[in-house]
Every structure is written in C-alpha cells, then in structure tokens.
Specification:
- This protein is mainly alpha-helical.
- The protein has one domain.
- Helices cover 63% and strands 3% of the residues.
- It contains 14 helices and 3 strands.
- A 3-stranded antiparallel β-sheet has the order 1-2-3.
- Strand 1 and strand 2 form a beta hairpin.
- Helix 7 packs antiparallel against helix 13 and helix 11 crosses helix 12.
- The radius of gyration is 21 Å and the shape is globular.
Length: 403
C-alpha cells in the first residue's frame, strides 16, 4: 500500500523518468577537487586526533596506545575504497543502490531491536555483531534515506504540490524509520534524518506554508518524546546549567568545557591534553572536538569549522549546478546530513545544544560512521562528474525544482 503510494504518479502524468543523463552531461567534468581535498584534510586531522585522544584508554584497556588509532586507520582505508568505487558509479546505479539499500537497512534496523541479536551499550541497542565486524545500521540509514527520498521526488516532481496524496506518504515512510530509531533509542539520528527530509522537500518545491505547518506539528511530538523519557529529559535540561550537577548528569559536558578552557588560543600541545586522561568520557568519539580544542587551541577549532563550511558549500554548489533532479536533491540531502551532524556535534561539545550521541563526521572514531561518511563523499564526487561543462548558477536551489 505504502509502496504504491510512493511510486504512483501524483497530479499530471509526468514524463517518463530519465535515469541516465545524456552523454553530454555524464562524466564530462572531473570530480570536485574541493570536496576531495577538504574531506582528505578532515580525515587526516581525525586520524591524528583519534590517536592522541584514545591513547590513554587504549593503553589501559588493551596495553597498546595505538589500538584505536590502528583500527581507525583500517576503517579509513575501507572508507576510501568505498569512496573511490562509489565516485565512479553512474547515476542509474546510485539510484538503484538507494532503492535496494533503503529497504535492506530498514531490515537491519528491525534486526537490531531483537534481544540477543542487537548489541546493547550505554542503555541503547544500536549495533549488530556480524562476527568479523560490528555495524551500526542507523549510520548507513541516513545516506540511503537521502538517496531513496531523492529518487521518489525526482520521479514525480508534482508530488510536493499534493499534500495527502504526495507529501503524507513521504512522511509515513520517514516515520517507519524514525520509529525504529527511537526504539533503539537514537534520538540524535532521528533528528538528523528529520532535518534531511525537511531540507529535501524544501528544495523539491513544497509550499513554505506546509513546511511551517509540519514543523509546528512536529514540535509537540518531539517535546513529548523528550518529556516521556526521563534520561532524555535530563539530557535536554542539563546543558542549560551544566554546573548544577557537575559530578553526575552534567559531568561529561563540564569536562568538555574545561577542555576548551585549558586549551585557550594556542592549546596545550598535541598529545599534552589532560582531560582525556579518564576525565572526559568518549574523548575519542563523540567529544573528540573538545580534545582538539584543548590540545590545538582556538585556531584549529576555527580551521575545522571552516573546512566543514567549505564542504557543505561545495555540496550545495553541486546541487545548484545540476540539471538532473535526482542529483540536485541527493546533493542537497548529503549537504544537510553532513551539515546538521557536524553542527550538532560541535554544538553539544561546546554546551550550545543538549547531548545527542553523534560523532563528528570524518574526525571521530567509529568504523561505520567513517565508512558511511566517506561513501557519502563518494556520492558527491560522482554527482560532480555528471555536471555539464557550462551551466549558469541559479540563486536558489528551489529554482526550477519541478523540472
């Protein structure tokens, strides 16, 4: 029923979808060197800082200070292979990957919730152990959601002009995945995916009044989700006054703020940070940005923010240049995904947002996260290869979004 609602034409019968760009629009350009270069810089920073941030806990736990750094290097190598392979695929292949991948990852999200199959950690069941590797399905779900939404919206641009027949099925589709994420629970990933969906339907041309109405409807639901879970309510309220309970619920945030204070403008020096010495939990994963602030100082903090800003700008630039509806929407989705996750992570670490359990893309330790993020970068590179040789850049991403 839902599948038919997502695939049947809405409004006037659209022209048959052209999945393969014409010869003059495919592979005529080279890959975007800005995307490749900035991503490589962030990856190198991550490799260095994961070693620095994880050395104390790795030495105590495994007797080898480089344990996490070596694993991170392997993950990065696998991610780079994934990037190269994806960057050379046709748009047709990528669209099919999005369709099959979406339902495959949805299946894995269901499997994750099965007791005895999904692995628990920190009060959540988010991982599956395949023996040779532990995978967090919520990470690839973010990317396949982008691809599948772009595929549906590109096939029938008129969908966004019909609320019940066109837009509602999209939110039912998103709601299925969101329910599985919240059951883990993974509130942070749910919010990131919601941002992606809203960003993509905005670019697709949905009336702004509808977006406003959807946001108004979503706010009380999000508030209810926070209030009904005591641990989540404590997280949301604790960041407002982290010094109210610095030894319990606010401990991690307080240690993060102390890291930035210790670093100041110039930092304490690479490897010389003190907060990672068992004071700051998750120092090599969710809170690695605080270790960077302590050891490298304000200059490197601003540099990393600038690198992420350039990466998001180039992703949106690719979207603005694209003739193909799918490329335009998918590039926007990847930009929103990387942008919201990086901003959310940095905001949490600096005490500007409540804790969400999100990694800093390309920088934090995490096998699934690194591989999936590099795969998303590969998508941007594949999209940049399909751009026409010459194209006027419009001011708005919404311009001609229904053509």
């Amino acid at each position: 029923m839902l599948f038919k609602a997502l695939t049947r034409p809405v409004g006037k019968k659209p022209a048959p979808p052209n999945w393969e760009p014409s010869a003059d629009k495919q592979r005529v350009g080279t890959m975007d060197l800005w995307v490749a270069g900035v991503s490589f810089c962030l990856l190198i920073i991550g490799l260095v800082m994961v070693y620095s941030a994880s050395a104390p806990i790795a030495l105590r736990t495994y007797g080898d200070a480089s344990h996490y750094a070596l694993r991170n290097g392997i993950f990065s190598l696998l991610g780079l292979i994934c990037l190269v392979v994806i960057s050379r695929q046709s748009i047709t292949t990528i669209r099919r990957l999005g369709q099959w991948g979406f339902w495959g990852i949805m299946f894995l999200l269901v499997v994750t919730l099965i007791p005895g199959v999904g692995l628990e950690g920190g009060g959540a069941r988010r991982w599956i152990n395949f023996g040779f590797a532990t995978v967090q399905p919520s990470e690839p779900y973010k990317v396949v959601l982008v691809l599948y939404m772009a595929h549906i919206l590109a096939n029938n641009p008129a969908r966004v002009r019909y609320f019940f027949a066109g837009v509602v099925p999209l939110f039912v589709l998103f709601g299925m995945g969101a329910a599985l994420l919240l059951a883990e629970p993974d509130f942070g990933a749910t919010m990131i995916c919601a941002s992606v969906v809203f960003g993509m339907i905005f670019v697709a041309g949905i009336p702004l009044s509808w977006i406003f109405g959807l946001v108004v409807a979503a706010v009380p639901m999000a508030a209810a989700g926070v209030i009904m879970a005591p641990y989540r309510f404590r997280r949301v309220t604790s960041f407002l006054d982290p010094w109210d309970d610095p030894l319990d619920s606010d401990f991690q945030l307080v240690q993060s703020l102390l890291s930035f204070g210790n670093g100041g403008y110039t930092g304490t020096g690479l490897g010389e940070g003190q907060q990672k010495q068992f004071y700051l939990p998750e120092s090599h994963t969710d809170f690695i940005f605080a270790v960077i602030g302590e050891e490298l100082g304000l200059f490197w903090i601003l540099l990393i923010i600038l690198l992420f800003a350039i990466l998001i700008w180039r992703a949106l630039y690719i979207a603005r240049l694209a003739d193909d509806r799918f490329v335009r929407l998918a590039s926007t989705g990847v930009a929103v995904l990387l942008g919201t996750q990086s901003v959310a992570n940095m905001g949490v670490v600096m005490g500007l947002l409540p804790p969400k359990g999100l990694t800093l893309p390309l920088v934090s330790y995490g096998g699934t996260s690194i591989i999936v993020t590099l795969g998303a970068i590969g998508l941007l590179l594949a999209f940049s290869r399909t751009l026409p040789v010459s194209e006027k850049v419009g001011f708005s991403l919404r311009k001609n979004s229904s053509t």
